[in-house]
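Can't paste images in this forum, so I'm doing it all in text. The chain is below; anyone willing to post the predicted structure tokens underneath?
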Amino acid sequence: MAKTLVFGHQNPDTDTIASAIGASYLLNTLYDQDTEAVALGTVNDETKFALDKFGVAAPRVIETADTEDVYLVDHNEAAQSVANIAEVNVLGIYDHHKFDFKSSAPLYITNKPWGSVATILFFEFKTANVAIPAEIAGLLASAVISDTLLLKSPTTTAMDKEALAGLAAAAGLDDVEAYGLALLKAGTDLSKKSEKELIDGDAKSFEIGGHTFRIGQVNTVDIDEVLTRQAALETEIKAEMAAEGYDNFLFVITDILNSNSKALYIGAETAAVEKAFDKSLTDNVIDLPGVVSRKKQVVPPLNAAF
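Text version of the structure:
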């Protein structure tokens, strides 16, 4: 019999991969289930750094689920999930995003407004009195660091701080600050990435006010260096919009050291985008001081403006 699959969203980030691995271990240990953590895309450089650090192999990549039952982590919207999500039975969801999931049957859901799914899983382990293996604790700690930008993101909660401390101790991480900076910087070397890899690397699709929005985000230590490739980025964005039918594309470039962003916008709704952020677009670029979180600082104002 095929294993029950556990997976996060397309274009997986560190929280997605770590949470799939952590949730699979918890389900197997606590409920004696036979699950496998898989991924809906190749891991990025930051996640690879964490996997290598803690000696864990990257999950196998799938496009469609080849099993009847699945668990979702770090997402619940069909547009961000596996291609055949409508054909599988979702047994449970661990998530920290806005909820837009419909089911005809009861299922286990834990959805909390915390900084990462890894934080949710830390407390799930704690409540169940299940010890977290050091390597999985290290991955979950990496996920908290990644999603909260080392506890500096506005998405950070007191629960994330408690979880990171507990996970770091379980993983044997003595200097969380040093490791966290090394982890975040591992994902900022963009020089070898193509424009398509940049815009797709951490991109999600949304329905906002009757419009299809593709919102990508990339972390860097030099926003202006990324914007030297603006013309090529715009060409790639327009090609993807035409191919995939997106109405709008917002590419957010985030400086992880100074907690600021700029965004490149392509689409016809300039006035609404400017209204959302109370800033003007100049040459398709909008300045977003203090913005680092797509979930909390980008999507909500767009929803309000549209």
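The first helix runs from residue 14 to 30. Residues 76 and 102 are 9 Å apart (CA to CA).
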